[in-house]
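For practice. Any example?
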Amino acid sequence: MKYLVGEASAGAAVYAVQGDQAYNLTALNPAVGNDLMALIKRPDLVNAVTAQLKTAPRVSVASITPALPVAAPGTIICLGLNYTDHIKEGGYEIPEYPALFMRGKNSIMASGAPLVRPTCSTQLDYEAELMLIVGKGGRHIAQDDALSHVFGYTVFNDGSVRDYQRKTHQWTPGKNFDNTGAIGPFVVSPDELPEGAAGLKIESRVGAEILQSSNTGNMIWSVAQTIATISEYTTLEPGDLIAMGTPPGVGHAKKPNPRWLVPGEVIEIEIEGIGICSNTVVDETDL
């Protein structure tokens, strides 16, 4: 199933997407609610709406303004340094343990929303990433069982303010400016993608300018390994978000000059089989 959370003429709803058409699951069954949390927590509800899908009211995908797939995720965990060539372009050593950091809820927003360059910096960078949404929670999840804990996969732009990222050994400041982490718009269930969402083309671009182009098969730590590693130290909950790191080609590593995002540009992140996350860059002073 391919899901889209957003707002159209009928209001906020969860939709099932087939081609350019979207079926209103919330209108079909009000228990679905206005984001994916009910479906994440209730597999029986997923089965029920899937069986009745063709009876749901239908609109065009283009008529829907995307919202966050999960309105209030409990935890947002991001994996850094997960592609070898990206590690090298950043001047880091290949780590023996994944570089993990967290984002706060104010730092994320939906595909289509403004991506905000803050007043204090011009070093706004892009990072194309695969993101997973936790379905079944747990602690000490075995790697062999980890993929059964995934509800779906989406697209993430881990917008980073590089000078603030490097002010300390911890990356928290540069990764948590308001409205810099774009998510969505689509969430695709695991059965419609290769195992662990591996082997998918992943790309970032501005217009015809291709900034990053790689494949999720190049990740050092797989989705299953990452879930198992994270669950060693914390309990994962339904609706938690995990971002899987970015491939090479980020702006700060461009030679001879860094390639920062500037207001007015539209940055697109595309992952094969999932979709395109598209956001216009705006200056904070113009909001």
The chain has two domains: 2-66, 76-286. The chain has a mean pLDDT of 97. The radius of gyration is 18 Å.
